[in-house]
Amino acid sequence: VQLLDSGGGFVQPGGSLRLSCAASGFTFSSYGMSWVRQAPGKGLEWVSGISGSGASTYYADSVKGRFTISRDNAKNTLYLQMNSLRAEDTAVYYCAKESVTAIQTRFFYWGQGTLVTVSS
Amino acid sequence: QSVLTQPPSASGTPGQRVTISCSGSSSNFGSNIINWYQQLPGTAPKLLIYGNNQRPSGVPDRFSGSKSGTSASLAISGLQSEDEADYYCATWDDSLNGRGVFGTGTKVTVL
Fold first, then answer.
1. Which residues contact residue A19 at a Cβ distance below 8 angstroms, ignoring those fewer than 6 apart?
2. A77-82 and A91-97: which strand pairing?
3. What would the pLDDT profile of B48-74 be if each residue is shown by its tens digit?
4. If we measure between CA atoms, which residue out of B25, B52, B67 comes closest to residue A106?
5. A45 neighbourhood in chain B, CB within 8 Å
6. Exposed, middle or buried, A39 (CB in 10 Å: 0-12/13-18/19+)?
7. Which of A43, A58, A111 minimises the CB distance to B102?
8. Nearest-by-Cβ selection for A45 from B35, B46, B102
9. CA distance A92 to A75
10. Summary mean pLDDT of chain B
């Protein structure tokens, strides 16, 4: 199993970024996936999750209405579209794989993380 | 702000037993499993305990988990220097549309 996060970078407040997580080594469509972030010096925060089929999506209150999670099961790739970015969104973003098709925060595998910095 | 509360720190000498608590509510602990993660500095988290008390392959049996009511505990017996890390509990919360939640995190120091 391998998860490769990408798409992070520097963006001004109000800007947008799209994160990607390329998955390999397992049947991607069979497992739920989540994004988890960690602000500098802070704890872990669950951001968003999506079921294996993509039919069900979930968001933390802090990002609801601004972030959109999606997946392309044909390309084995998870996405996080981040709009209206704020300074408080600055963090390392990890994608994480569930052990079932639903979301249970039971992440056996994690990406390496990609840093998003929101600053003027 | 996390809905799962952990003590900010815990410590012990090598060989001692250290216990970390995780306190929640009926909307998260009520019918959901608790998972625990270990995070070493500069690395991605690692699943330590899943399903309240199960260890993934490769995790030493020094680590154990339990859940009772709206609280859970992670115990580290025979504390070793390499156990110095941050530890987080996590679960699903059924409130609103549903969301994942992590605990506030506990820094374990080996004295």
1. A5, A6, A7, A8, A35, A79, A80, A82, A93, A95, A114, A116
2. unpaired
3. 999 999 999 999 999 999 999 999 999
4. B52
5. 2, 102
6. middle
7. A43
8. B102
9. 24
10. 95
Render B57-102 in DSSP notation, one character per residue.
Answer: TT--TTEEEEEETTEEEEEE-S--GGG-EEEEEEEEE-STT-EEEE
Dump pLDDT digits (tens) for A50-100. Answer: 999 999 999 999 999 999 999 999 999 999 999 999 999 999 999 999 988
Q: Using CA atoms, how far apart are residues B41 and B58, in angstroms rounded to an integer?
A: 20
Give the C-alpha separation, B80 to B6, whole Å.
21
The tokens of A22 are what?
Answer: 């390329």
Please give the Cα distance from A23 to B80 (Å, whole number).
Answer: 34
CB contact under 8 A, B99 and A59: yes
pLDDT digits over B16-45, tens only?
999 999 999 988 998 899 999 999 999 999
Instruction: Tokens for B73, please give them.
Output: 């505990």
Which token pair is B30? Answer: 């009520």
Q: How many CA atoms, within 13 angstroms, populate the side-chain half-sphere of residue A36?
A: 31
